Amino acid sequence: MESMKKQLENILHRAGEMVREGHYATVSAKEGHANYVTNCDVAVQEYLMDALHALLPSARFIAEESDGITLTEEDTFCVDPIDGTLNFIHGRRASAISVALLSRREPVLGAVYNPFEDALFFARKGEGAFVNGKPVRVSHFPFESAVVAFGTSPYNPELSSKTLRILSRFMQEAADLRRVGSAALDLCDVACGRSDVYFELELSPWDHAAGGLIVREAGGVFVNPFGQMRYDVKCPVFAAAPQCAERALTLLLAGAEQG
Ligand code: LIP
């Protein structure tokens, strides 16, 4: 397993070079407002799928730039080649490559690589979370000092007003808000204590499967605030340091019910 980890790290570092070089000639619109994919997203995904198939030939794939989500009990890679595509298009240097390995429909391995910070977050279920080989843990800040990160996709406009209602409640009690534009980076920020809470009312499995395991293995809470966490459909997600979780979840649910 150690050699698999090393080979996976090498694959992510190579994908990261492709993102850092950032050569894209085409930006294409996907469904909904401001939902984009570049030819770099596609090239990185093609590289990742080839390299991960060579690493684990029996594994299946769920990937952002492929069609459909078919999740079975079998080993399945869940891949986002560039999480934070709008940041990438604007040169905002806040995007990540996210790869999770699901087994029996649950993440057992998660890796998120930020090529702009050369930071590779990694977790295996039950074995802790690390960044570039060093252990990471969630913060100890109390909720009144908490930095609350959030996401809301422009292509889910029906969720934006609900998100803003929730945020207005957080602003009354936490310290401040942050919006990164990459769920994978937001989740790694919670895992290493740079943020204390993160939520988003709808995410695809490839956005959160790796980062959610990294949060849990760093001692954090990672749940679907409205029900069961799933990796075969879009899902709301909530992540927090334990001491912030109860109050943050209460505010999130109250804001969501406000109608
Ligand atoms: C992004 C998510 C982010 C969300 C953005 C976007 P993409 O994923 O990671 O949390 O708020 O709107 O959906 O589309 O850049 O891979």
Termini Cα gap:
48 Å
Q: Helix/strand/pairing class, anyone?
A: alpha+beta
Number of strands: 14
Fraction of residues in helices?
25-40%
Q: Can you describe what's shown?
A:
With 259 residues, the protein is an alpha+beta fold. It has helices at 2-21, 39-55, 85-89, 157-173, 183-191, 205-217, 242-257; strands at residues 27-29, 36-38, 60-63, 76-83, 96-103, 106-114, 119-124, 129-131, 134-135, 147-151, 176-178, 197-203, 221-223, 235-240. The chain is globular, with a radius of gyration of 17 Å. The structure holds L-MYO-inositol-1-phosphate. The site of L-MYO-inositol-1-phosphate has 14 residues, from strand 4 and helix 3. Residues 64, 80, 83-86, 151-153, 181-183, 200, 207 line the site of L-MYO-inositol-1-phosphate.
Summarize the model shown.
Helix content is 37%, strand content 27%. It has 259 residues and is α+β, with helices and mostly antiparallel strands.
Brief descriptors of the model:
single chain; 259 residues; alpha+beta; 7-stranded mixed sheet; 5-stranded mixed sheet; binds L-MYO-inositol-1-phosphate
Layout of helices and strands:
Layout: H1 2-21, E1 27-29, E2 36-38, H2 39-55, E3 60-63, E4 76-83, H3 85-89, E5 96-103, E6 106-114, E7 119-124, E8 129-131, E9 134-135, E10 147-151, H4 157-173, E11 176-178, H5 183-191, E12 197-203, H6 205-217, E13 221-223, E14 235-240, H7 242-257
Parallel strand pairs: 3-4, 10-11, 10-12
Antiparallel strand pairs: 1-2, 4-5, 5-6, 6-7, 7-8, 8-9, 12-14, 13-14
Helix pairs in contact: 1-2, 4-7, 5-6
L-MYO-inositol-1-phosphate is lined by residues 64, 80, 83-86, 151-153, 181-183, 200, 207.
